[in-house]
């Protein structure tokens, strides 16, 4: 995911720091760039955010300095791997300057190149994330009776909100989205992916999640310098994955349900009066095994070409 941060001389690096430390499973931050560009300044800002009281200095002569919550390494004169230092890494964030000089085995990390650039006669410290193995996703389910949203970091659900039997989701949609982002200490511009179902179910509910994801996709490409990706799946795919049945029922409104059958990979959808047979989705199972469900979603290349799934004319109205 492309992401570049620009800061004027002496400007606080809070936006970048908040973004980095919002990742709960982050193991390392790997820094490269010219002398004086801001590698140690960024390290000091991260240390302050983590609550470190000691003054942060570049470990040029020590090679490594261990603090309470992170380890600071200057790899300018290092070659090979970090095996000799790894016993000090446990449960701590590792920040490495001149990281290109060494090999590492970190699973979740950011590589950041730091430069100084002159733009319109102003001097900027530029932090470009050249590689990241951490991801943060927003999952939205609004097509069913319940309203469920969660944040997923590296295939682990870190925060979730479930509101049972919420008929008018439009009244609380944005406040719930704000709440989940606040709980996660993140923001929309920091997301890598948005997953949402596209029906069948409540047409108004399906449209709500779909339009929110689509709008953010288009806006962030234009104004946020962020390659946000949208992934969609028919709601019935989640049920077939969870319940192992050949026929399922999804509530359309008070009086109708979608009867959906799957045979030899072919899907048939009909409206039915059997609303009492509507299946219930187990969100706890989703939280325990998010990757099993997210694998059902497909990346959207053009949101303008996507359509919601329903059997006949949209069933607009309360569930």
From TrEMBL:
It comes from Metamycoplasma alkalescens. GO terms for cellular component: cytoplasm. Coiled coil: none annotated. Residues 175-215 form the Gcp-like domain. It holds the Pfam family TsaD. One of its GO terms (biological process) is tRNA threonylcarbamoyladenosine modification. This is tRNA threonylcarbamoyladenosine biosynthesis protein TsaE. It comes from the Bacteria. SUPFAM superfamilies: Actin-like ATPase domain, P-loop containing nucleoside triphosphate hydrolases. Belongs to the TsaE family. Its main location: cytoplasm. PANTHER family: TRNA THREONYLCARBAMOYLADENOSINE BIOSYNTHESIS PROTEIN TSAE. It is found in: Cytoplasm. Keywords: ATP-binding, Cytoplasm, Kinase, Magnesium, Metal-binding, Nucleotide-binding, Transferase, tRNA processing. GO terms for molecular function: ATP binding; kinase activity; metal ion binding.
């Amino acid at each position: 995911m492309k992401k570049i941060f620009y800061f004027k001389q002496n400007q606080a690096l809070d936006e970048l720091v908040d973004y980095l430390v919002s990742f709960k499973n982050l193991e390392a931050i790997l820094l490269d760039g010219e002398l004086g560009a801001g590698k140690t300044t960024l390290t000091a800002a991260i240390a302050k955010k983590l609550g470190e009281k000691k003054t942060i200095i570049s470990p040029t002569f020590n090679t490594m300095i261990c603090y309470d919550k992170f380890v600071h390494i200057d790899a300018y004169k290092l070659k090979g791997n970090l095996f000799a230092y790894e016993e000090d890494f446990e449960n701590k964030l590792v920040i490495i300057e001149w990281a290109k000089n060494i090999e590492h085995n970190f699973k979740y990390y950011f590589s950041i190149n730091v430069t100084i650039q002159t733009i319109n006669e102003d001097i900027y410290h530029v932090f470009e994330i050249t590689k990241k193995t951490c991801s943060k996703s927003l999952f939205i389910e609004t097509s069913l009776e319940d309203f469920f949203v969660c944040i997923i970091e590296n295939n682990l659900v870190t925060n979730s909100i479930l509101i049972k039997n919420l008929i008018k989701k439009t009244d609380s949609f944005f406040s719930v989205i704000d709440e989940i982002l606040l709980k996660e200490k993140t923001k929309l511009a920091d997301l890598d992916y948005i997953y949402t179902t596209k029906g069948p179910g409540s047409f108004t509910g399906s449209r709500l999640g779909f339009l929110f994801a689509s709008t953010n996709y288009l806006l962030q490409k234009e104004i946020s310098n962020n390659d946000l990706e949208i992934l969609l799946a028919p709601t019935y795919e989640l049920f077939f994955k969870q319940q192992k049945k050949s026929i399922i029922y999804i509530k359309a409104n008070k009086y109708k349900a979608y009867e959906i059958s799957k045979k030899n990979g072919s899907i048939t959808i009909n409206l039915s009066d059997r609303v009492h047979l509507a299946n219930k989705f187990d969100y706890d199972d989703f939280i325990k095994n998010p990757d099993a469900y997210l694998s059902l979603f497909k990346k959207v290349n053009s949101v303008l070409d996507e359509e919601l799934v329903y059997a006949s004319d949209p069933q607009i109205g309360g569930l």
